[in-house]
Each structure stands twice: as C-alpha cells, then as structure tokens.
Specification:
Blueprint lengths: L1 H18 L9 E2 L17 E3 L5 E8 L4 E7 L4 E7 L6 E7 L2 E9 L15 E10 L6 E10 L4 E6 L4 E3 L4 H9 L11 E9 L7 E6 L2 H14 L9 E5 L2 E7 L14 E4 L5 E5 L11 E8 L5 H10 L4 H10 L10 E2 L1
Parallel strand pairs: 2-9, 10-13, 15-16
Antiparallel strand pairs: 1-3, 3-7, 4-5, 4-8, 6-7, 8-9, 11-12, 11-19, 12-18, 13-17, 14-15, 14-18, 16-17
C-alpha cells in the first residue's frame, strides 16, 4: 500500500511540474545524422577550423524547441567573443523540424571574422568554445563544443582591453572642426589611444594585423576617425597609427586612396563602428627575422601640420599635396588629456 502511495505522489509531482513548465529538458546535441538533414556538423570536439578567407564551417545541433542561442568564447569557459540568437543573426539558422526535433546550423567564417576580439598570433592554434543553449528550457540547458582554430601563418589577431586603452573626455579635433571648419570632425567623442606590445608576427611575410578595440569610448573615438575620413580619398588627419616603430597613415575601410598614395606600403584602416583596425601590408614594416611587433593608434585628435605633411610626403605626395594635407591637420587645441580606463 505504501509503495502505491509513493508512486501516486511521484506521478502527481510530475504532472505538477508539467503544468508549471518545469519539465526536465534535454540539452542540444551535435547533429551527426543524415536522415532528417542533408549535412552533419563539421565542428565538434575533435575538429580543427583552418584559416581560409573564402570558406565557412558549420556547427549543426538538434534540440526539442525552436528557441536557441549560441555563445562563442575563446578558450573553455573563456572570454565571450560574440552571441548569436536565432532569427536575430545571419549566422544561426533554423533548418527543419522532424517529429518534434528541431535542427539548427551555426555558420562561422574560417577567416576568424566571426570571432570579434580573438587573440591569436601568426600561425598560432587557439581554442574556440561554442555554447549551444536551448533557451526554451527553464532552467536553460546547454552543450559546450570546443575545437581548434588554426590561424594563418601571416595574420595576427589582437584584442585591446581597458588596460591597453587611454581616453579623454573631449578632443581638439572636434572643437577645431566645429569652430574653424577646417578638416577634422564634429564628433562628441573624446580622443583615445590604444597600445599593444609583443604581437606575434611572421617577419616580412606578414600580411596583416587585425586589432579589436574592446573599450566603448575608444570605439567611439575610432568611429569618429572613420566619419571624418570617409569619402575624402585621403588618409585621416585626426588619427594616426604606429606599427613596428614606423608611423603609418589611417584610412576609412573601403574608401579610395589618393592617386599619389603608395598602396604597397604599410597602412591602417578603421571600421565604420570603430571596433576594428586593420594593419595592411604589415610585412613591409618588418624584417625577415621579426617575430614580434608593437602597435599603437591615436584616434580623434588632429595629428598636426608637420606630422601630416611629412607622412604624406613619405607615402608619395608632392610638395603641394603634402602642404594641403598638413593644413588640414592643423592642431589648434594642443594635446588632449588622456587618462587610463
């Protein structure tokens, strides 16, 4: 009699949990079947994602709901790089549902561009963790998948955190532009400076260094450089970078360069949102035996007449063009007061 009572109590508890939505659910699983879907997951706990600029890799999962999110981290239980929500991200997509099982596919570019904030020296292998989360469950259930991202031998990824960032409350560039209407920009963002030492590189074979700026204020400053430089067909006069001890000009990503500009030399580009700076032709500033390089950038502050004129001349500008660039870079407000973040 007692046994029957216990069974009855257990069944009542299960019914109660069901009624209030507390059913024990199953965490997402990696999809390895080919009956319900055409393809299986390419990324799993034993796979390597090799750097490639023209391909992508897939992480396929199945679960008992059509509510899912994917978190991407560097290292097991490491720093969060990005989050993708179903129906809100081009990377995470619904495939099909069969007999109450929902299939989803996460697409990740093999060139590392879907890992904002990735840190990887040239040729380095790093661990990526994807947390596949069934958000319909209460509490949410999760499956972690770790795999290796094998970076290209001639590309480096850098993340600038707060300790490598300095910002100012206001900048001479914005004031100069609004008062004198000479170059610059009318951004409300302050000036910023980011610095990274000891970036792992591959000597004069290095193609690029991709820098992610993590601090929001510094991103605003860098975005102001993009805004001031976009569609000007000139390098920025409110932002300048240094790579391996050489001063290099900064352009808005995707814009045309001046006809006199030597595009084979090292230069930098900034993204529209200010989160990414790319050092292009990095190997031109390195020697064959260099294994490390330093990078820094000053953003949203006029770089000064002499600095701009000399930089333009170094990159192929005539005396007249160099003078024009120098005038646009006049700094009438002095150096901004930068403070550590």
């Amino acid at each position: 009699m007692r046994k029957k009572s216990l069974i009855a109590v257990g069944m009542s508890a299960m019914l109660l949990l069901t009624a209030i939505g507390g059913v024990m659910a199953t965490a997402p699983s990696l999809d390895t079947e080919t009956t319900d879907t055409a393809g299986t997951t390419e990324l799993d706990g034993t796979s390597t994602q090799a750097y490639n600029t023209s391909t992508t890799s897939f992480l396929n999962t199945s679960q008992d709901s059509n509510q899912t999110t994917a978190e991407i981290r560097q290292g097991a239980d490491g720093r969060l790089l990005d989050t993708h929500e179903l129906n809100s991200s081009d990377n995470l997509n619904y495939e099909t549902v069969v007999s109450g099982t929902y299939y989803h596919r996460l697409e990740l570019a093999d060139d590392g561009s879907d890992y904002p904030g990735l840190e990887a020296d040239a040729g380095e292998d790093v661990t990526i963790e994807v947390r596949s989360i069934n958000t319909a469950d209460d509490p949410e259930t999760m499956t972690n998948t770790t795999f290796t991202f094998s970076n290209d031998a001639n590309v480096s990824f850098v993340h600038m955190n707060n300790s490598e960032t300095m910002v100012a409350d206001s900048t001479g560039a914005g004031i100069r532009a609004s008062v004198f209407s000479i170059g610059g920009n009318d951004s409300d963002a302050g000036a910023a400076e980011v610095t990274q030492e000891g970036i792992g590189v591959n000597g004069d074979s290095q193609d690029s260094v991709i820098v992610n700026i993590g601090n929001a204020d510094a991103q605003d400053s860098t975005a102001a450089v993009y805004d001031a430089t976009e569609e000007t067909e000139a390098f920025s006069t409110v932002g300048v970078a240094s790579f391996s001890g050489e001063t290099i000009p900064v352009f808005a990503a995707g814009q045309d360069t001046p006809s006199w500009f030597d595009e084979d030399m090292t230069y930098a580009t900034v993204s529209e949102d200010g989160s990414t700076v790319k050092v292009v032709n990095a190997g031109e500033s390195l020697s064959e035996d260099d294994t490390e390089a330093d990078f820094s950038m000053e953003a949203n502050d006029a770089i000064g007449f002499n600095n701009a004129r000399n930089l333009a001349s170094d990159y192929g500008a005539s005396a007249f063009d160099s003078l024009s660039v120098g005038i646009d870079a006049l700094n009438l407000n002095g150096q901004p007061e930068l403070t550590e973040v």
